[in-house]
Please model this.
Amino acid sequence: MALKIGNIKLKNRLFLAPMVEVTDCAYRLLCRSEGAAMAYTEMIYVDAILHENSRTQGLMKIAGKKDRPVGLQVTGNNLSEFTKFSKLKILEDYDLIDINCGCPSSRIVGNEAGSYLLRTPDKIGDMIKVLKDTGRIVTAKIRLGFKNNNVLQVSKVVEKAGADLLTIHARTADQKYTDAPDWNWISKVKREIGIPVVGNGGIVSGESASKMLDICDGAMVASAAIGNPFIFREILRYLKTGKENEITKKDRIDGFSEYVKLAEKNEVFEMSRVKYIGSNFFKSFEGASQARVNLMKCKSIKDVKEMLNSL
Ligand SMILES: Cc1cc2nc3c(=O)[nH]c(=O)nc-3n(C[C@H](O)[C@H](O)[C@H](O)COP(=O)(O)O)c2cc1C
Model:
């Protein structure tokens, strides 16, 4: 069954989640080449975009036609800023705008953005309407609420405001990232609203992705894709054959080398990010822990390339 977001037709139903410090344009390209149909920038503050600082511009970068369809994920707390933002010409560069209503970090919640927005569903609705009024395709990514789960209420507000798709990370904001997600809520929302619902939280394999796709329209993978873009290929294989292959040492080293190449080519190479992503590739093979130690010692892109050649 094909999935459409507004007029965007996706090649399959697999989504790479927005992730701070991970989903730059190079990482998105890598996951797309392994099969991810849809991907997003990391979450960016609307006011940072309005202030046009150079780091923000790097985070917003798109790597050409291959990096499509792409969503710009934003958060904020202020409707008049959203109104200014909605009129920026740069929004035309993205296929859709996704509003983050799920980030639980205390810095973001303290600014009344991210998951704090779940406390004020009408504000989420107003943010969606402001963007819809300028003709954009708009989606929202939410959690189940705080201690008081209000996911059904928020989902209905999101739909009524005109959003084109809703993503649900099936944990409450208080649960952060550790507790088991409760997918029953994804099924309940799916029965209550008419727009496409993408499920997120705890997809780690072909089998779990397949179960998610049984209950809703799309499956979004986050942590299991860090250092493992191959998960998309393996999910697609599982959906076709009921089997997944082992990821080999060669896959992991080649995958990280490709990331480094893409990051350099697209001018998004950042040492701290490369070390974080690389240390996630260097897992589950003999010599992986030494490779991580060597990567941490690197000071430049040249060092990283040399250490890769030595593997
Ligand atoms: C390193 C990291 C960064 C994240 N950054 C974002 C972000 O920028 N925007 C967002 O909506 N969610 C972000 N998340 C949450 C994920 O998108 C996802 O909702 C969550 O990790 C649950 O999915 P999972 O169980 O597949 O990891 C982040 C998660 C991780 C692990």
